[in-house]
Amino acid sequence: MPHSHLAANWADVRHRVDEACHAAGRDPAEVTILPVSKTFDAETVRAAMALGLHRFGENKVQEIRDKAAAMDGCGIEWVVIGHLQTNKAHDVARLASEVQSLDRADLAAALHRWLQAEGRAIDVLVQVKTAAEDSKYGLAPAQLPAFLDSLRDYPTLRPRGLMTLATHSDDPHVVRGCFRQLRELRDQAAARGHDLPRLSMGMSGDFPLAIAEGATEIRIGTAIFGPRAMPAAGPVAP
Ligand SMILES: *Cc1c(COP(=O)(O)O)cnc(C)c1O
């Protein structure tokens, strides 16, 4: 039973989400858990489906291609949560049910073009950079209003909310500040006529703080699937 840990992990995460909701005075039904299956194979995703899960987050389009091919016709919804190169837009338009990492104009234009060709429309979340680290992607908060306005030119992209990754920090105030900023940006956008009900924020290590700040969706990898294998080491430098 190589996947027997999944059911227990899933139940544990669900329980901790419920606790965080109660602590924050929120209804647990308001918070969706997006299982993040990146680096885990199709067989593992199949085992997770046996728990009733059918929507999975992935950060690499190539992995979605491979898993979708291995699981043809399973009715899975693939959610893109990782940084997207524009040249991957065609595959995304074919395979993804949703993109949470929309962070720039040329990507929006490319996705729209391929979605039109496919005759599809998808939900998108705009990824905003709230973290201090340079390594994190996302639109600068100051650019959000104009970017949201520009999405009106792309009817195949349905903006539903915002997404962020918090600063990696041991200080809960720093982490929580990132989540609070995303919620405030959402509220400011609402005042300008953009209805963005969804806030995708919080991962295995910080989701209770995100729930306290209003997350409607948390993206959980490690706490469900276990630790990810380290990438294979490259050749050792001489
Ligand atoms: C990997 C990843 C997650 C999940 O991270 P865990 O810490 O394993 O829960 C969430 N969001 C994004 C964008 C990711 O790339």
Automatic annotation (TrEMBL):
Belongs to the pyridoxal phosphate-binding protein YggS/PROSC family. Pyridoxal 5'-phosphate (PLP)-binding protein, which is involved in PLP homeostasis. It comes from Rhodanobacter caeni. This is Pyridoxal phosphate homeostasis protein. Signal peptide: none annotated. PANTHER family: PROLINE SYNTHETASE CO-TRANSCRIBED BACTERIAL HOMOLOG PROTEIN, PYRIDOXAL PHOSPHATE HOMEOSTASIS PROTEIN. Keywords: Pyridoxal phosphate. HAMAP family: PLP_homeostasis. Residues 13-227 form the Alanine racemase N-terminal domain. The modification N6-(pyridoxal phosphate)lysine is found at residue 38. InterPro entries: Ala_racemase_N (IPR001608), PLP-binding_barrel (IPR029066), PyrdxlP_homeostasis (IPR011078).
